[in-house]
Write a structure and sequence with these properties.
By secondary structure, this protein is mostly helical. It has six helices and no strands.
Length: 158
């Protein structure tokens, strides 16, 4: 029974973190290229409103993904599934690292761009803010990919 619960938790973690991975991957592969063709005001307004909605809608996926990954780790350990526990633990470490990058780099920029979009006042450092936000996309995508691969491995090892 614990093995089935662990697998279900890991699948839920994959689904939740898949949403975050997809958002980051889309930003890295598509939006970053689009932004190069936009002026500072357009980038700021577009990013600002994107962050406005994203920061309100995405936490359920991010928090849900971390929580279900932690629960997967615990259930795997309790069930004696060492390989699955280690794999899920790797996912948790990757997700906590992703969260650290988000909180330290992305979130303050999200807040500034949201304020600019809502007020219509474009900051003088608008392009630098966007460039800094985009600079951590490869790391964010990589950490999410590690988490998803580790969760998939946990499912296979249960």
């Amino acid at each position: 029974m614990l093995i089935t619960i662990g697998q279900i938790l890991a699948i839920a973690a994959v689904l939740a973190n898949g949403a975050v991975y997809g958002a980051d991957m889309s930003a890295a592969v598509i939006t970053r290229s689009v932004n190069k063709h936009l002026d500072d005001a357009a980038v700021t307004v577009s990013a600002g409103w994107g962050h406005y909605y994203g920061d309100r809608r995405m936490p359920v996926f991010g928090a849900g993904g971390v929580i279900t990954a932690v629960l997967t780790t615990v259930v795997a350990a309790v069930a004696g599934q060492v390989g699955a526990a280690v794999a899920a633990g790797v996912a948790v470490l990757a997700l906590v690292s992703w969260l650290g990058v988000y909180v330290r780099v992305a979130k303050p920029i999200n807040t500034a761009q949201t304020a600019a979009a809502r007020s219509g006042v474009i900051p003088a450092n608008a392009r630098a803010l966007q460039d800094r936000w985009e600079s951590v996309l490869p790391l964010r995508v990589g950490l999410q990919a590690v988490a998803l691969a580790a969760l998939g491995t946990a499912i296979a090892l249960f």
